[in-house]
Amino acid sequence: MLYINSVRQEHRNEEDMIQFTNVSKRYPGGFEALKNISVSLQPSEMVFLTGHSGAGKSTLLKLIAYIEKASNGQVVVNGKNLARMKRRGIPFYRRNIGFVFQNHRLLMDRTVFDNVALPLVITSDYPQKEIGRRVRAALDKVGLLAKEKKYPIMLSSGEQQRVGIARAVVNKPPLLLADEPTGNLDPELSREIMLLFEQFSQVGVTLLIASHDLALIRRLQHRMLTLSKGYLVGDGVAN
After folding, report:
1. 3-state secondary structure (DSSP) of residue 77
2. pLDDT per residue over 15-56, tens digit each?
3. Contacts 24+ apart (CB under 8 A), 72-75
4. Which of 80, 106, 127, 136 has the most neighbouring CB atoms within 10 Å?
C-alpha cells in the first residue's frame, strides 16, 4: 500500500497545533488502525479528514483527544507530548479540546442551557454568573439563544447538532475535533454547520473534521487529509 508523509512536515515546528511523527496504533489482536502517520496542522487551520469506513479516521481523532494512546511514534498537541502526560493531567489537557460527535450525545433530561453548561460545571472553575455568560455566548454563536430553556427532544436534528457544537466550544478551546458532524443532516444543514466551523477557524480555532461528504468538502476548498487502510495517502486542497 502506497502511503505518504504530509507535505506540511517540512514546515513543522514547535508552533504547530498538532504534530504526528511516525504514529501507529495497534489494537489487541494485532489490528493496526493507523500506520506510520506523519502530519502536522497549523493554528487556525480548518482541515478535513476523509477515507473509507475503517480507514482510521476516528482512531486518529481519539489519539488527539487522548481517548486512545499511540502504539508507536509521537503525538504532540499544542506543545504537549502526549506520551509524557501523567494520568492526573488528562482532564486538564482535554479542557483545551472541543469534541463534536455525529450523534450529538446530548442529555435528554437536561435543558439546552444545562447541556451546554456541562463542561463548565464539571471543572468547577467558573462562578454561576460566568457560566451563564459563556453558555449564552456559545448559544448565540450557533443561533440558538432563544431556545436555552428547551429540551433536546424539542429540537430538530440540525439544532441538536448545533447544541453539541455550542457545548464543544463553550470553554473556548483552541482545538476543535468533529467526527462525522453532518452525517445525519441534509445537504443544506450540512453546509450551515460547515460554515459555522469556518467562523470558528477565522477567530483562531484549529479544526479537524472527519467527514465522508466529499462534494461538500470540495466546495469549501480547505485542506484534506485522506486515509486508506490506516495509511495517509493524500494531503492537499480538495478539488
Report:
1. strand
2. 899 999 999 999 999 899 999 999 999 999 999 999 999 999
3. 72/22, 72/23, 72/24, 72/26, 73/20, 73/21, 73/22, 73/23, 73/24, 73/36, 73/37, 73/38, 74/19, 74/20, 74/21, 74/22, 74/23, 75/18, 75/19, 75/20, 75/21, 75/23
4. 106
- Kindly give, in sequence order, each residue whose CB lies less than 8 Å from that of residue 100, ignoring residues fewer than 6 positions away: 161, 164, 165, 168, 176, 177, 178, 179, 181
| Alpha-carbon torsion (153, 156, 161, 166), positive or negative | negative
- Alpha-carbon Rg for the chain, nearest whole angstrom, is 18
pTM above 0.70, yes or no: yes
- Other Cβ atoms less than 10 A from the Cβ of 85: the count is 16
In eight-state DSSP terms, residue 46 is E
Nearest to 160 by CA among 183, 130, 133, 134: 183
Q: Residue 47's beta-bridge partner residues?
A: 208, 223
Q: How far apart are the first and last CA of the chain?
A: 23
Residue 47, amino acid: V
